[in-house]
Amino acid sequence: MIDLTLADAGAALAPDFTLTLSGKDITRNVSERLISLTLTDNRAFDADTLTLEIDDSDGMVELPARGAVLALSLGWKGSRLIDKGTFTVDGVTFSGAPDRVSIKAHSADFRGSLNVKREASYHNTTLSALVGLVAARNGLKSAVASTLADIAIAHIDQSMESDIAFLTRLAGKNGAEATIKNGSVLFLQPGRGTTVSGQPIAPLTITRRAGDSHAFTIADRMAYTGVIASWLNTAAPESQASSVTLQRKPTAAPAASVAHPRAQAPLPGGQGKREDYIMGEPSNAFVLTDSFNSKEEAVRAAKAKWDALQRSAATFSINLAMGRADLYPETPVTVSGFKRVIDAQTWTIKNIEHSLSDRGFTTKVVLEALLDNIEYEESISEG
């Protein structure tokens, strides 16, 4: 387990990076002019974003060509730099005075075929095969988590829909999150703390001393405790729609016991358990408006939505005083030194933002709740 504390930071440490443009090393030229470097590492189908602010007060900076490829490695001097991938330049701004050049690049070229609207139908395939087909026609590789790869797709239409939108919808219906990294379309099962190949990710511990600032957010509007999904038997169209309900099992009340005289006071309203505090009231169901083609598809979509609602019930962001280029989305996290319900919760990294400037190298991690100990009950209502 990695212990992230300020004790890890040596006073003599200095941030470091390497940067190439279309294969040419431009690190020295950029470092002498760099105002800021920001890298956002996302888990969901939002492309990772690299933003550079470069001083051009002497007018000597050449504007990079749109479509040029940047490659970044990031870390600290004296340590191995971490490869952060490649990024396609798709935005350039020249402003002043004083003159500066802003460059924005993404991990996928959204100006290309991924954004073209298509008409297509797919039959009798699997999730892995379908993702592979869409990726290949865009010149990309693909990888689908083993727990998702063999999901049967009897039929699905792509009607005037870009491949990006289609893959996003396909992921949402099957409990996945899609992303593009290093030329590959990845379908991950979020909140499991594993890589796309199924390997467990080493857990991380963050103490309060490691952060400059933090923010915890919880919203009742996201605290659903059940999901309802409906389907219509297309083989018998005269039948009424049937539905499946996933409802959170009520948490058993703890046995009565004598509290220690120095124990912390219970939470207001008797909500003493972390899952009760995060999830809210026990009878608030989210209704999916789509009508699905089969019971299996409806159940799968309900479970996917159930997982997404659990993860988004609460978020916790921490700005780390010492940048950590080796952190990635999906890393399991525990925290200490904050409120009791926050410290008791298990978290996973949703996205990461690395910032490099004259103020140093910092990393902001955005965490979401991992409620893997919550159980649900499944009930079917036949039409």
From TrEMBL:
Biased composition regions of type Low complexity, renumbered to the chain: 250-266
Span list, region Disordered: 242-271
InterPro entries: Phage_Baseplate_Hub
Superkingdom of origin: Bacteria
Protein's recorded name: Phage late control D family protein
